[in-house]
Amino acid sequence: RKTLQSDRAYEGVRITLLGFVIKVLASAMKAFPSLNASLTPDGEHLVLKQYFHVGVAVDTENGLVVPVLRDVDRKGILELAGELSALSARARDGKLKPDEMQGGCISISSLGGIGGIGFTPIVNAPEVAILGVSRAQTKPCWDGTAFVPRLMLPLDLSYDHRVIDGAEAARISAFIVAALEDPRRLLL
């Protein structure tokens, strides 16, 4: 991310960790179809989605709104960063259209700009999961021989237990962590 941000070719696009998280989440949704599902209003049927739309909570003067990035699986990190920036600005200015806040498959709630080290995000029904992202911090990490600085990004996955059980949630979380630690995995 830092290397890309310093490249003049990407001037004008603010590349944040959230763009990487969104891209990784799209891969997780493909690998774990229950993550990309919703329940019917009566809660009786599971709808597996074939599209990948991610809502991202934005803090505004009037509270949180959740604009939706569409087809995130088909977009690169730079395109996602640009779209997220534009949607977030429209959200803060109160200019989002209703259709820009509908149709999400899963949501992300990010406290990165505010701070905090963990929280319990609440699932945005009829979605069945939400990923909470706290502020990344460099912390000392033991590598077996010495403490080395390592960027740590606290993540919190909340999910509807009617669809995703704890074991599957652990596998989903492990997938997300592995892909964020080494995004090259997404190319395989």
Q: What structural class do you assign from the helix and strand content? A: alpha+beta
Element order, helices and strands? HHEEEEEEHEEEEEH
Largest sheet, if any?
Answer: 5 strands, mixed
- The termini sit apart by 20 Å
CATH T-level fold name? Chloramphenicol Acetyltransferase
Please state the second-level CATH architecture.
Answer: 2-Layer Sandwich
Q: Which radius of gyration do the C-alpha atoms yield?
A: 17 Å
Going across the major beta sheet, what is the strand order? 6-3-7-8-11
- Global geometry: globular
What is the count of distinct domains? 1
CATH top level class name: Alpha Beta
CATH superfamily: Chloramphenicol acetyltransferase-like domain
- Give the strand content: 15-25%
User: What low-confidence regions span 5 or more consecutive residues with pLDDT below 50?
Assistant: none
* Average pLDDT rating: 92
Helix percent reads 25-40%
Structure summary, number of beta strands: 11
Task: Throw out a few tags for this protein.
two-stranded antiparallel sheet; Chloramphenicol Acetyltransferase
What does this structure look like?
- With 188 residues, the chain is α+β, with helices and mostly antiparallel strands.
- It is built from 4 helices and 11 strands, in the order ααββββββαβββββα.
- β9 (137-142) and β10 (147-152) form a beta hairpin.
- The protein is globular and about 55 Å long.
Question: How are the elements arranged and paired?
Answer:
Elements: H1 2-6, H2 17-31, E1 37-39, E2 46-48, E3 54-56, E4 58-60, E5 63-65, E6 68-69, H3 77-92, E7 106-110, E8 129-133, E9 137-142, E10 147-152, E11 155-159, H4 166-181
Parallel strand pairs: 3-7, 7-8
Antiparallel strand pairs: 1-2, 3-6, 4-5, 8-11, 9-10
Helix pairs in contact: 2-3, 2-4
